[in-house]
């Protein structure tokens, strides 16, 4: 017995009890509105005593007839069995209400002797179906709502998994790309090797620990961007002019780790791949309830843009952390590219 009770969803039981309680209270009020106070008692007894009849009829339709016949396309059997249940429960309701309610509490409402005729049975049965229709409508609406919520939960779970995988892959990819670019620079200008190794070591020491958290202080993210840019400034020398502007109070803000580095890294690859002179500007502006990231790169000559694999996953990261509170804009021209991110709190 305990094992059976353990599988009963108490929340579902409470919701069903509240539904039937609301039904009794509302229809007692409707039936007795404007009548003497005794009518409230009579109709209350009517709905309480006939409640098992309505409950059995409703649950047979909702949990047996509809799933086993209507949903399986057995429409003729559905109609025949539904009509049979209508007649049976209509007769039971008429007998119970006449003998156990009206005959006991209000003899003036007792039915005439021939009340169990086909006309009364059909009228009573059809009239009583309103509770079944209301129950089915609520059940269908609730099932739809729970289904949509389940879909949303699964989508959130998938997004969290994708973002977690991306975050674990991001660090090795960025490290590999950075080391590869620096290695090419060192092969061309070996004298830069000692200083580059020092800068790279300091950056990696901070970088490897930062990506483990789901959210980090903005100050730490900005520090990492500055160190990352400093490595490339030193490696590329006159081929790349870097402007980094940080304004406002960064302390109140937290952001997903390594949010902008993938974009910056992709764009800086262009500088290593061609011999143009480039200028880049990183702007980070923090105001009350507003944060702006802006990264631009341009050259006097046109350059080819590599495929950007980070835009879509970054949109997912932003939608997950700042749903409805951000805007990501990308502007592209032959010799210019800008990525601008606004976050509102």
Walkthrough of the structure:
The model is unreliable at 1-7 (pLDDT under 50). The strands form two sheets. The chain has a five-stranded mixed sheet, with helices on one face. A two-stranded antiparallel sheet has the order 1-3. The protein has ten helices and seven strands. Helix 4 runs antiparallel to helix 5. The protein is of the alpha+beta class and 345 residues long. The protein is 65% helix and 14% strand. It has helices spanning 2-6, 10-32, 37-49, 51-70, 75-105, 118-188, 193-210, 218-236, 261-273, 310-321; strands spanning 216-217, 240-248, 254-255, 278-287, 290-299, 326-333, 336-344. The radius of gyration is 36 Å and the shape is rod-shaped.
Concise structural overview:
The chain has 345 residues and is α+β, with helices and mostly antiparallel strands. The chain has helices spanning 2-6, 10-32, 37-49, 51-70, 75-105, 118-188, 193-210, 218-236, 261-273, 310-321; strands at residues 216-217, 240-248, 254-255, 278-287, 290-299, 326-333, 336-344.
Sheet bearing the most strands, described? 5 strands, mixed
Q: Widest sheet: strand order?
A: 2-4-5-7-6
**What's the number of helices?**
10
Quote the distance from N terminus to C terminus. Answer: 53 Å
